[in-house]
């Protein structure tokens, strides 16, 4: 799959074009290709399985209805993640709840393969990380979530959060350095 700098992969562009011509099966391919990433992204923000599944469905309904607004000069997945972020924020506002990011999803580390001492050390580090993340504002939590659970570049994160790549880097490194101070 060939991808130009900052552009949608050729396959995505073809799928989008086919959907716009009425090919419903191409949209099913898009859903299957991105559904798990979107679900993980949303779950990383709200930590509610059922709500995450519902919002994911809403995201793909919106993608389908607004597909003609997509500009293929930009990454398709980033456009979909932007919709997912907005839908999730709408959900959070609607229910007036504060959702904390849980580091378990962000890092996906399993302690089952560790020995007892390593496992205990892992749990202590995990607890410190969770405490620290709870002190962060929502944008910093989203940056960490996108960087670790979605493995996105700083540029892509900036595009999704509608901030500059430089701002993303600055905030990311500030959070990382802040964690070192927090642990001392």
Automatic annotation (TrEMBL):
Alphabetic keyword roster: DNA-binding, Sigma factor, Transcription, Transcription regulation
According to its UniProt record, which protein family does this protein belong to? Belongs to the sigma-70 factor family. ECF subfamily.
| Single Gene Ontology MF annotation | DNA binding
Q: Which PANTHER family match?
A: RNA POLYMERASE ECF-TYPE SIGMA FACTO (PTHR43133), RNA POLYMERASE SIGMA FACTOR (PTHR43133:SF51)
Q: What is this protein called?
A: Sigma-70 family RNA polymerase sigma factor
Q: Which NCBIfam families match?
A: sigma70-ECF (TIGR02937)
Q: Which InterPro entries match?
A: RNA_pol_sigma-70-like (IPR039425), RNA_pol_sigma-70_dom (IPR014284), RNA_pol_sigma70_r2 (IPR007627), RNA_pol_sigma70_r4 (IPR007630), RNA_pol_sigma_r2 (IPR013325), RNA_pol_sigma_r3/r4-like (IPR013324), WH-like_DNA-bd_sf (IPR036388)
Organism superkingdom: Bacteria
Origin species: Clostridium sulfidigenes
What residue stretches are annotated with the RNA polymerase sigma-70 region domain?
Answer: 30-97, 133-172
Q: Name one GO biological process term.
A: DNA-templated transcription initiation
């Amino acid at each position: 799959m060939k991808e130009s700098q900052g552009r949608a992969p050729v396959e995505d562009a073809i799928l989008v074009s086919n959907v716009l011509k009425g090919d419903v099966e191409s949209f099913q391919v898009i859903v299957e290709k991105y559904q798990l990433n979107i679900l993980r992204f949303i779950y990383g923000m709200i930590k509610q399985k059922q709500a995450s599944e519902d919002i994911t469905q809403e995201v793909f309904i919106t993608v389908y209805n607004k597909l003609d607004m997509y500009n293929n000069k930009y990454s398709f997945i980033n456009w979909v993640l932007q919709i997912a972020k907005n839908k999730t924020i709408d959900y959070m506002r609607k229910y007036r709840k504060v959702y904390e990011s849980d580091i378990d999803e962000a890092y996906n580390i399993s302690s089952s393969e560790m020995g007892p001492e390593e496992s205990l050390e892992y749990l202590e580090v995990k607890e410190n990380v969770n405490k620290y993340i709870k002190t962060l504002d929502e944008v910093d939590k989203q940056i960490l979530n996108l960087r670790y659970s979605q493995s996105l570049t700083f540029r892509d994160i900036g595009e999704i959060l509608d901030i500059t790549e430089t701002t993303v880097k600055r905030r990311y490194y500030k959070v990382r350095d802040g964690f070192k101070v927090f642990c001392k």
